[in-house]
Amino acid sequence: DAGITQSPRHKVTETGTPVTLRCHQTENHRYMYWYRQDPGHGLRLIHYSYGVKDTDKGEVSDGYSVSRSKTEDFLLTLESATSSQTSVYFCAISESQGSNQPQHFGDGTRLSIL
Amino acid sequence: GENVEQHPSTLSVQEGDSAVIKCTYSDSASNYFPWYKQELGKRPQLIIDIRSNVGEKKDQRIAVTLNKTAKHFSLHITETQPEDSAVYFCAASYSSASKIIFGSGTRLSIRP
């Protein structure tokens, strides 16, 4: 299994608070991704990174920001959490360009916004 | 925008029978098509993938076929077993960026 650790695994917080989720990898892969998973929607890309300090938006990026200050860590921040951001969040990594190489997923973070 | 359609959303088959899940994609430049299996409460796991230079790929009881002209691809599971029960996701590469687009998933149930 790919060395991917997501933290926390579960979090409950209140509307309007900032939340940061962490993805840590030990594979030295260049590409990292954040997805959210909701019933009926599959996996939707929030943001991704193609190198240290290099990030780009996905299809559902509004209300989220990311940072990658070193290869092994990719942080996802909900600037002011809303109930619509209640979801399961998955981090993924790939060795090279993700459009042509497998992505491997972490175990997910279940986030509830009350 | 780019889109991947997956059908059916739910599928129930008798143990030992075959299961087929179909996906269509919109980006004619897509060239990589992975399939993921997700068990309840677990992470998605890659089970097979195919690139556009081949039309079919097999791995034991699992096979994937690709028709680039029609822009559709399918997952075939033969001799289904109880442990095949899960949600299956197809995906297609998005030519203009380093990312893939996922289908909405198929919940496969194997009846004993």
Description of the molecule:
The complex is a heterodimer of chains A (114) and B (112). Chain A is mainly beta. Helices cover 0% and strands 57% of the residues of chain A. In chain A, strands 2, 4, 5, 6, 9, 10 and 11 form a 7-stranded mixed beta sheet that branches. Chain A has a 4-stranded antiparallel beta sheet with strand order 1-3-8-7, with no helix packed on it. Chain A is globular and about 35 Å long. Chain B is mostly beta strands and 112 residues long. Chain B is built from no helices and 11 strands. Chain B has strands at residues 4-7, 10-14, 19-25, 32-38, 45-51, 56-59, 62-67, 72-77, 86-94, 99-102, 106-111. In chain B, the strands form 2 sheets. In chain B, strands 2, 4, 5, 9, 10 and 11 form a 6-stranded mixed beta sheet that branches. In chain B, a hairpin with a 4-residue loop joins β7 (62-67) and β8. Chain A binds chain B through residues 31, 33, 40-45, 48, 50, 56, 58-59, 90, 97-108, and chain B through 1, 6, 31-32, 34, 36, 42-46, 49, 51, 89, 93-95, 97-105.
